[in-house]
């Protein structure tokens, strides 16, 4: 303990991915830095079940194994299977991008001799190389700090994502059913979010899509119809707006890859769009673009729209600690303060090439 740098060369490494899609994608520059540092090493990723498919599309990984679930029946047996899977890989080092106690315990139980991670969740005794967590940094820089502890210098790009035939066929079918020419590049509007208090209201997303459709250059719009988004029954009325329903994360990614611009909440798919090279517009309330805006290394522009409340970012303990009551539909005031006009202005600027 106390060491922050592991010097020996490693040829078989575990990369324990974070537990949120956005964090996984913000970690891709660190993954690429490690791949460049050890180009012939075997990199084994461990990801939550819901993210295994996405991780398997990251070109830098040689193998992906499922992480134990955070709760539920059979959790102990699932944890034992995860430990056994890692033991069979005979791994020499673990880069623990997930900040949890469990991730460090799993690596330790698997007998991985070098374990690098942030000093979080009271797990310092399980780490051989503990890196202080700087919560004032952008999330990507924090992950790069961990890769640096294994000797990796920051890479100029992020690890690449490559979709496969099944999800590309899904995107083909979606375009065909919507009557969108295969050569067209739509705008994708994604109202989805992991938590309702981080999601702009459904009404505002509907009005935003209509505004883009009415003032755009006849570019088709795809709107991801996914909770907590709840469009009215009669919507959409504009002929250029099409709903995307029931898509998995990688299917949505294959659709995003064929679009020209992405707009949505501060969520995982926004980072996926940026990683795929799309210009993005992000809507921020309790989070802050200073810490969690896309920086996936693609060079695509990002426009952050935020009311910039002084209490942001908060711990998101809705609404025990929020100084103001929620709106009627359960949104915090920092998110409610972002107007349709402000977001539409940023979308229009990117569509013009500003």
Explain how this protein is built:
- This protein has helices at residues 21-26, 28-37, 52-56, 75-89, 101-109, 139-148, 165-178, 202-215, 249-256, 268-275, 289-292, 333-336, 340-352; strands spanning 12-16, 42-47, 63-66, 93-96, 114-118, 129-131, 187-190, 221-225, 241-245, 261-265, 280-284, 302-306.
- With 354 residues, the chain is α/β, with parallel strands linked by helices.
- It folds into two domains: 12-148, 3-Layer(aba) Sandwich (Rossmann fold); 184-352, Rossmann fold.
- A six-stranded parallel sheet has the order 3-2-1-4-5-6, with helices on both faces.
- α7 crosses α9.
- The longest helix is centred in the first third of the chain and has 15 residues, at 75-89.
- The relative contact order is 0.13.
Secondary structure topology:
Layout: E1 12-16, H1 21-26, H2 28-37, E2 42-47, H3 52-56, E3 63-66, H4 75-89, E4 93-96, H5 101-109, E5 114-118, E6 129-131, H6 139-148, H7 165-178, E7 187-190, H8 202-215, E8 221-225, E9 241-245, H9 249-256, E10 261-265, H10 268-275, E11 280-284, H11 289-292, E12 302-306, H12 333-336, H13 340-352
Parallel strand pairs: 1-2, 1-4, 2-3, 4-5, 5-6, 7-8, 7-10, 8-9, 10-11, 11-12
Helix pairs in contact: 2-6, 7-9, 8-13
């Amino acid at each position: 303990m106390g060491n922050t740098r592991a010097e020996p060369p490693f040829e078989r490494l575990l990369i324990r991915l974070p537990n949120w899609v956005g964090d996984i994608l913000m970690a891709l520059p660190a993954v690429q830095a490690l791949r460049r540092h050890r180009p012939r090493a075997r990199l084994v990723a461990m990801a939550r079940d819901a993210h295994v498919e996405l991780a398997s599309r990251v070109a830098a990984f040689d193998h992906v194994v499922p992480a134990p679930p955070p709760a539920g029946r059979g959790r102990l047996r699932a944890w034992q299977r995860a430990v056994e899977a890692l033991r069979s890989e005979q791994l020499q080092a673990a880069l623990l991008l997930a900040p949890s106690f469990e991730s460090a315990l799993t690596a330790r139980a698997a007998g991985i001799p070098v374990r690098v991670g942030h000093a979080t969740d009271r797990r310092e005794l399980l780490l051989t190389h503990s890196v202080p967590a700087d919560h004032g940094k952008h999330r990507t820089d924090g992950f790069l700090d961990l890769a640096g502890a294994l000797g990796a210098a920051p890479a100029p790009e992020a690890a690449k994502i490559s979709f496969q035939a099944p999800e590309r066929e899904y995107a083909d079918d979606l375009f065909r059913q919507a009557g969108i020419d295969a050569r067209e590049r739509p705008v994708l509007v994604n109202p989805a979010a992991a938590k309702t208090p981080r999601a702009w209201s459904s009404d505002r997303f509907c009005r935003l899509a209509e505004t883009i459709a009415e003032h755009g250059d006849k570019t088709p719009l795809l709107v991801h119809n996914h909770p907590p988004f709840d469009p009215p029954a009669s919507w959409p009325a504009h002929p250029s707006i099409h709903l995307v329903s029931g898509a998995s994360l990688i299917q949505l990614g294959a659709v995003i890859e064929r679009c020209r611009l992405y707009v949505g909440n501060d969520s995982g798919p926004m980072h996926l769009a940026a990683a795929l090279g799309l210009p993005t517009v992000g809507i921020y309330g309790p989070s802050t673009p200073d810490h969690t805006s896309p920086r996936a290394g693609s060079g695509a522009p990002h426009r952050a729209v935020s009311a910039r409340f002084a209490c942001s970012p908060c711990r998101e303990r809705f609404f025990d600690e929020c100084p103001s009551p929620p709106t009627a539909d359960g949104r915090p005031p920092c998110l409610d303060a972002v107007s349709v006009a402000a977001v539409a202005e940023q979308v229009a600027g990117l569509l013009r090439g500003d």
